[in-house]
Amino acid sequence: MNPYLVRLLQIAQQPSRRIIGLMSGTSLDGLDVALCRLEGHGADTRLTLEQFATIPYDDDVRHRIRQVFAGTQVSLEYLTLLNPWLGLLHADMVLTCLGAWQLKPADVDLIASHGQTVYHAPHHQHQHPDFPLNATLQLGDGDHVAVRSGIITLSDFRQKHLAAGGEGAPLAAYGDYLLLSSPDEERLLLNLGGIANFTYLPRTGHDASTAFSTDTGPGNTLLDATVRAQRPGLAYDEDGRLAAAGHVHEGLLKALLDHPFFSAPLPKTTGPELFGPEYLRQAQTQSNTSTLNLEDLLATLTELSALGVAQAAKQAFGARPALAVYASGGGAHNPALQAALRRHLPGCHFATTAELGIVPDAKEAILFAVLANEAVAGQPISIGAGRQRVPAVTMGKISLPG
Fold first, then answer.
1. CB atoms within 10 A of CB 232
2. Are 125 and 194 in the same domain?
3. Which helix (H) or strand (E) holds 85?
4. Is 48 helix (H, G, I), strand (E, B) or coil?
5. Which among 323, 381, 398, 397 has a CA at the least distance from the CA of 173?
6. Which domain holds residue 138?
7. Residue 30 counted as an annotated binding residue
8. Can you tell me whether residue 216 is helix, strand or coil?
9. Is 274 annotated as ligand-binding?
10. Which of 46, 85, 241, 321 lies 20 to 30 angstroms, CA to CA, from 296?
């Protein structure tokens, strides 16, 4: 029998597993590396974050990814080369972290690698009637991660969700439900990454079919792209200072909100393919704001991100939701965005996931470690109902180091 299969069986039968979760989001900040100790599975899952690091992408890495990121026309050769290159890059970043943490690859049971999303194409968005299906593409080949690192790797998690009838995103509902449900409060787990999304968690003991995840619109993607375009020396609006110095332009905001995504039924998914520079240019042309100064532009885009979240919450929970909202992702560090969210959702209690014992910047990487743990040691469970349903499937393709 293949010794790696024997090892995989041993890992599945262990009372706990050491899993490294990897996440690189649409903001292209870098690779989040979360070393997790997971005990049990399903509702009995217990997680300890042993180590965490974010390894920033340098300008060269970002440039390479942007050659294919959310583009309708790209070089197939370049795309093909980028897939293994990113796998090797991520594996090397894992090995760098292990060295810094004074650990060896043999000290880790599994890697859970999300990969780098370069295109997301749900059926409602791609408008190709000859392809009546949802699709998404993440680069960073799992075999290359496994062979370079020497660690059994699970990757390409979103494809099983697609195959079972989902949109491949957001997948947070699964890990959020297992780790962060509470008997005492209804929770909204709000991820403010490049695209904003939230998971609704009913109180523990209530019907799990009411839990669901949805994208709400742009989070940081338009903010960061606008800063890079107008202030080449900056990667983003640190602490939302530029946005805080500006004023919301109501005409531009109205044009930005005049998009069918915002009125579409929940749950829904999207990406920078929809909310990119062209979307902003069209709204500026429509509202005659092409010469708007940077501060006012960022103030308006910050308001857009907050309103996307607030409108989705009101669509799901009524005009004045009263939920506990726990934020994570880059937008959790943006006071201007947080202030706008509080203004639009005054009945909600706001905090970060740190209040729940989860490092906000590590949360997405942690959730993929949970998915890998369930794939090898758990049983498929379904969360949500109807279009909000997370199918009862295990997610992640297994790559052996040899």
1. 8
2. no
3. helix 76-100
4. strand
5. 381
6. 3-168+395-399
7. yes
8. strand
9. no
10. 321
Q: At what angle do helices 76-100 and 142-149 cross, to 10 degrees?
A: 30
How is residue 286 written in tokens?
């429509």
Asked if 112 contacts 149 with a C-beta cutoff of 8 angstroms, the reply is no
Residue 60 assigned as binding residue: no
Please write the tens of the pLDDT for every residue from 56-75.
999 999 999 999 998 889 99
User: pLDDT (tens digit, 9 = 90+) per residue, 242-287?
Assistant: 999 999 999 999 999 999 999 999 999 898 889 999 999 999 999 9
Q: What is the pLDDT of residue 99?
A: 98
User: How many domains does the chain divide into?
Assistant: 2
Question: Is residue 105 assigned to a domain?
Answer: yes
Model pLDDT, residue 171: 84
CA-closest candidate to residue 249, choices 315, 297, 321: 297
Check if the beta carbon of residue 153 is closer than 8 Å to that of residue 146. Answer: yes
Beta bridge partners of 55: 31
| 39, 177, 184, 370, 384 from 45: Cα distances, Å | 6, 11, 19, 8, 19
Provide the CATH number for the domain around residue 100.
3.30.420.40
b/e per residue 301-314 (b: at least 16 CB within 10 A): bbbbbbbbbbbbbe
Q: Is 25 annotated as a binding residue?
A: yes
pLDDT value at residue 167: 84
| Each residue's pLDDT tens digit, 85-131 | 999 999 999 999 999 999 999 999 999 999 999 999 988 888 899 99
Which tokens belong to 280? 């902003």
Q: Cα separation of 324 and 14, whole Å?
A: 35
Q: Is residue 363 part of a domain?
A: no
pLDDT tens digit string along 200-236? 999 886 567 788 899 999 999 999 999 999 999 898 9
List phi, psi (to 5°) of 243.
-60, -40
Question: What is the per-residue pLDDT for 35?
Answer: 98
- 189: Cα separation from own chain's centroid: 12
Q: Report whether 130 belongs to an annotated binding site.
A: no
- Least Cα distance to 24 among 89, 68, 75, 102 occurs for 89
Tell whether 357 is in a known binding site. Answer: no
CB–CB of 17/11 below 8 Å?
yes
Joined together, the tokens standing for residue 214 give 């949805």
